[in-house]
Every structure is written in structure tokens, then in C-alpha cells.
Amino acid sequence: MKERARILVVGGGYVGMYTALRLQQKLKPELRRGEAEITVVTPDPYMTYQPFLPEAAAGSISPRHVVVPLRRVLDHCRVVIGEVTSVDHAKRTASVVTLATEEEGTGPDQLSYDELVLAPGSVSRTLPIPGLAEYAIGFKTVEEAIGLRNHVIEQMDIASSTRDPAIRDAALTFVFVGGGYAGVEALGELEDMARYASRYYYNVGPEDMRWILVEASDRILPEVGEEMGRYTVTQLRRRNIDVRLETRLDSCSDRVAVLSDGARFPTRTVVWTAGVKPHPVLAATDLPRNERGRLRCTPQLTVDGAAHAWAAGDAAAVPDVTAEEPGRETAPNAQHAVRQAKVLGDNIVHSLRGEPLETYSHKYVGSVASLGLHKGVAYVYGRRLRGYPAWFMHRVYHLSRVPTFNRKARVLAEWTLAGLFKREIVSLGSLEHPRAEFELAAGGKPPEDPKGSS
User: What CATH number corresponds to the domain at position 169?
Assistant: First the structure.
């Protein structure tokens, strides 16, 4: 190993956290002797376990147990809370903006490195749909999940107290766009939660609410197979959820969702889960990308043609060596990301020590999805499961995958308590504007909610 290896990890999600964790385990002697340094640059001081976002939105799991504090887990790494805005790999430097640089007004810091791991993840893939930016809600972060929960309960409060039928109907109409995991699981969990909460409203019942799932293709949940996708559509429709396949959202201006089939729904809730795209920082690097904007990678998780640059997860186009047809890439999901991070970390260590690199190889074993409490679908090792067994497998699988024993124990404890006691149906929407009451008391006025959620 060279005199000092400076490793820069961009991103603190699945790949970023697990790679840094692997590196600090494998390079323990080098870190102790000062021969290696690991820096993790991430916008948030935590990693979000995204498969638990629907349950956090439904109140089954506390929001703080869906995230893993990076500084506690990566105790031998330097964690910098900020964003990498550009990378000049030819010069081995990255421009980093932090809260301190914004306060100082001196411009981005320049971080030098020897080995670069690019794992910034993805961002929501939006379309130029009128009203989308003004009124829609995403579902990629824990803040969005809890904000959506608060929003749904607030809409029930509005519907319960208004005398205007138009306002009531709009408040009780919930439109979800995107039939992948995020959209279906979020819809299933929140409909379950709202159905339960309605028993505490004297004038709002489950039959008063309208839940609509809009999907542009002819099927939902493609990961669990066509048969289980059809089963999911049947189950959702039995719950009076309006599933519209081969349909697009054309507009949601003025709080009216206009669909491509001509339907119009006045609504105060549009949830956008229609796919993701690579993080914009990839375009601000001098590294090769494919036509979809992802980094071109080798099966060893190096960036193709760029020495000392590595990538995995949503940001990387990694060849799938287990696929029968040539040119196929691994899917950008958590199942691959966690396993790629392990190989990536090991390969960086191999590279530093002059050892041969490993090839990433993992055959897709299947998928599980929750449709609400005690409801789910699964396709695992060629076997199809539905209902309670699939839901139970979903919980067992993700409990085994959530990082740290601390989080596993807390999530299991919350699930146990949730089975013994009633759901929480409290909205804490005021958390989004914590100074509003004080500003009003001090003579000012509280900030307006741009989404009009309350």
C-alpha cells in the first residue's frame, strides 16, 4: 500500500454506508497506523432504509428507527455533511458544499483523494406535467413519508369539519402515480392506516375516501411477475382502490388531477412515485456514462476506463454476469446495492494491496411487497406467495436486512407493541413549521404552506 490512501465516498445511502463500513473493517490496521483515511460526504447524517418508508408513513415504525446514524456506525471514518457538486477525476479533486461554506460565502471546498467511490444514489424522475412541481409529493425520503402521513390525516380533518361538498371530496381523494414498489406499498399502507383512522371520525367512513393508482404500463409490480401483478390489482380493487393501467397523469394544476383517459379528479393529494433517475452530480464529472446517465462500470465495480474510480447502486451501470442475454445490467435495487457494496469495499482493499479483484455476481432471487397490514405478495426462488405468508416474509426479510442490531431490535419491539395496542392516528404536521406559533405570538404571521395541505 502507498504511504497514505485517501478514500472519498460520495453518498451515504446503501452503497455509500456499506462500502465505508466494509472499508473500515478491512483497513482497520491501516487506519490505526494512519496509512488510510476514509471520508464520506453525504447530504444527511443518516442512511434511510427505504423499504420501511411505507410502514413509517402508516405509523407502524417510528421515523427515527427507519434511519441509521452514520457517525455512530462509521466511527473510523470522517463524515462530512454536505454535497459534492462536481468531480475532476483527472486531478483527483471534488468540490464540496457544506452548511459552513454557505455561511462563510467562500465557495465550495476542494477535497483531494486517491480512490473515489461514487454512490450518490438517485433522485425522483419527474416529467414536465403542469402543476406537478407545485402540488405533488414524492416518496423517497423519511421526511416525505412522515409529511405524507400528516397530510393524509389533515385531509381527513378538513373533510370532517367542512360544509362544502367540493372541498370534502377533494380532501378525500388520493392519487398515486406509479405502480412500482414505492407507489403500491405506500398506497397500500396509507389506505390501511386511513381506513383504521376513519373509525374515530363520526362523519368520515372508508367508503367516503377515493384512492386512485395511475400506472402508464399494462401491469404493476413487474418485479414479482405477471401473475402476482394481476393478483395485486385484483386485491387492490377489492379494497375499492381505483387502479388505472395504461394511463398517465396529464396535469394536476389547480388541484385537479387530469388523466390521459379523460378522467378528472379534484384532489388535494398527488403522490409521485413514477421512477427515478441518476443523481445530477454524475453529469458534473469527467467519468464515462451510458445513454441513461449512469456510470459505465465493469463487473469488478470499477468505472470503465477510469483508474481509481469505483461505483455501484443506482448510479452505476453494472454488467449482470449471471444473465443469459448479453449486455444486461443489474437492476438498481437494494438487493444488488448491499451486495455490490461488499464486493466494492473488498476490491478497493485488494487494489490497495496489489491483489486481484473479485467479480460481482448475484442471481436475482425474487421480490417481496407489502400491501398493508397482513397483506402482501412475493415471488421468491420461483415460488409465489400471497396474503399473510407474503406479508410475513416481507417483514422477516427486511428485518434481517436493516443495518445494525440496534435498529433490528427497535423495529421488532415496535412491531410487537403495534400488535398489542392500537395504531397511532396523530398528525404532527405543525413540526414542518415549528416557529409558526411563536411568530404569530410575536406579531408576525406563520409561513404559508405552498402545497395548501392545511
Answer: 3.50.50.100
